[in-house]
Design a protein that fits this description.
Aminopeptidase; two-stranded antiparallel ribbon; alpha+beta; 379 residues; 36% helix
């Protein structure tokens, strides 16, 4: 009934990248991906991730027409760090057909099993350091930058296939008009600033390369024990930083110091998805770039982009006991509205990260979206 084809030629990749438009046609909350960005993340010659990972991209065809796609990924770094044998699946899209979903997922499972893998996990596109998780709650709002979106029926397809929940990732809506900072938190912040000499500063864009090295050192230390975390190489981190540099607001990339030593950092990105939403075909050329610049630069930005996404927040392990984490939120609470971001999304946060979930709830925030990672043992 369905034919499967490995993605190899330029024509194949073009079909792979363009397929989602047939799935989301008419969906007002879908944000079309920039085609150039999809090509970049899947380019094995340009993306340093593929120095320690390899993939198996597939198209599903019916009567010569594309009806589904999937990518299998084996990340050797992940499997070594976590002592697992995982084959990931990601970039999943398909029509609402259980037989097709079963065959797409089976194709990746069989490929993984042939490589000695014992568990199928996903969606990961292609890893936890990129876009991951299936949206299972919160379909009434467009996704924030670098967050996923999918039809509600994907969850049913996955679960009927036999995939079960491995971990939920939570997204919190933060609104300056309703957020609250307790007197206890404010007093704690003041004590830290005085007693532990905690200071914050924005990233220095004129010395960006050195700043990236500082951030990488914090990143790999702070997230070392997190579920699913894999340390990033310098090449990977630089590659990602280069992509983000064009959209980062320096005032939203904050580094915390304790007595002059870098102790943690937090990154909030302007939600450029609010601007990308205007580029319906995902093409930057010939007119898409002009639309993007119109909505993201100068006086036009505040008319389009009024929220940011707090994408990363981490503290070095040796400074954890100071309780610096929630102080970043007090900084964003103070800075955000003045910079033109009265709203924000803190995402994603592991459901098992009780301190961070509690801190956000104490500020009056509640999860408004849930993303799920699924597992299935390979028999």
């Amino acid at each position: 009934m369905y034919q499967f084809k490995q993605v190899e030629s330029k024509k194949d990749w073009k079909e792979f990248i363009e397929f989602p438009w047939s799935i989301y046609k008419g969906d007002p909350n879908w944000v079309p991906p920039l085609r150039i960005a999809v090509r970049d993340v899947l380019d094995i010659n340009k993306n340093p991730f593929f120095k320690h990972a390899f993939m198996h991209p597939l198209l599903a065809l019916k009567d010569g027409k594309c009806v589904g796609r999937i990518v299998g990924v084996i990340d050797e770094s992940h499997n070594q760090v976590h002592n697992e044998k995982i084959v990931f699946f990601g970039f999943y899209e398909s029509i609402n057909d259980q037989t097709l979903a079963n065959e797409l997922l089976d194709a990746v499972a069989k490929w993984g099993k042939s490589k000695g893998m014992t568990v199928l996990r996903g969606p990961m596109s292609p890893s936890t350091n990129h876009e991951c998780g299936l949206l299972v709650k919160g379909f009434d709002d467009p996704p924030a930058v670098m967050m996923t979106y999918n039809p509600p029926y994907y969850a049913e397809l996955f679960e009927k296939y036999g995939l079960t929940k491995s971990m939920d990732l939570l997204a919190y809506e933060v609104d300056h008009s309703t957020a609250k900072l307790s007197e206890k938190l404010l007093a704690h912040a003041e004590r830290l600033r005085k007693g532990a000499s905690v200071t914050f500063r924005p990233v220095n864009m004129k010395n960006f390369q050195q700043e990236v090295d500082t951030l990488l050192e914090i990143y790999n230390d702070a997230w070392e024990k997190n579920w699913g975390f894999v340390p990033m190489s310098r090449d990977e981190f630089q590659h990602m930083a280069k992509d983000m540099k064009a959209i980062v607001d320096p005032e939203l990339l904050l580094i915390a110091y304790v007595r002059g030593e870098p102790a943690g950092f937090a990154l909030a990105l302007p939600d450029v998805n609010q601007a990308i939403h205007k580029i319906k075909d995902g093409k930057l050329f010939p007119t898409g770039l002009l639309k993007l610049l119109w909505h993201t630069k100068g006086p036009f930005r505040k008319k389009t982009i009024n929220r940011c996404r707090i994408i990363t927040l981490g503290i070095k392990q040796s400074y954890r006991e100071l309780g610096i984490g929630p102080l970043f939120y007090t900084e964003y609470y103070r800075k955000g509205p003045a910079l033109g971001y009265p709203r924000g999304e803190a995402s994603w946060i592991l459901e098992s990260n009780k301190p961070m979930n509690k801190a956000l709830e104490n500020m009056g925030s509640r999860p408004n979206k849930t993303y799920r990672i699924y597992d299935r043992p390979l028999a």
